[in-house]
Sequence to fold (218 residues):
Amino acid sequence: MKSCILFDWDGTLVDNFSVIKGGLNAVFTHFDMPLWDDETARRNIRLTAKDLFAKTFPAVDDQSKALEIYLGHVERNHLAEISIISGAAAFLESLHAIDGLKLGIVSNKTQRFLDAEIAHLGWQDFFSVQIGAGTAVKDKPHPDSISLALEKLGKNAVETRYIGDTHTDMLAAYNACVEPVFVTYGLGSVRDLSSDVLGGALPKIIDTYPDLLDFLTR
Fold:
């Protein structure tokens, strides 16, 4: 069994999809752009808001305005609308009870929102490290945020698995030289995975928390 497990947040342990989609659509409304339906949002929610808006809007002023609108929407709504994915709490309790096992979060969610949500759920004791967007030099799919988490934990990559629900998560894990594990119940789809950029092989793919617990504790 590996001695360190890092998790993505949204779509892996919690569901705050409606707030993320709502924030993006608030931006698109302001700029008179087409809104995203659920399918489009699930397909495209991968990057941090900052990186997404940098790709979407050529003008820096528009990027700043978009980020202001998005962050304002999330700040007003995220704690009220967040929900725990069924089975996640019991799953984390089981892992937390294992001596010597370190757990952490590496997310593309803005750091202050990530910290607030973990505190809101009373999950602070589960995690030895919490890395959100903007804390490392670059966010996922770059390796920096995972590498920073390992540095803070005093762990190395060969001891670590990273659990996520999107191709971006798997690419970040591969880039950081940790073992990627893909869960099918989140925002992403198995069909999104590309072995071409994952070292020629697909990650371990798991459908449920019981199966994930069994795999992680072998």
Observations:
- Strands lie at 4-7, 14-15, 83-84, 102-110, 129-133, 160-164, 179-183, 204-206.
- The longest helix spans residues 60-81.
- The chain has two domains: 4-15+84-216, 17-81.
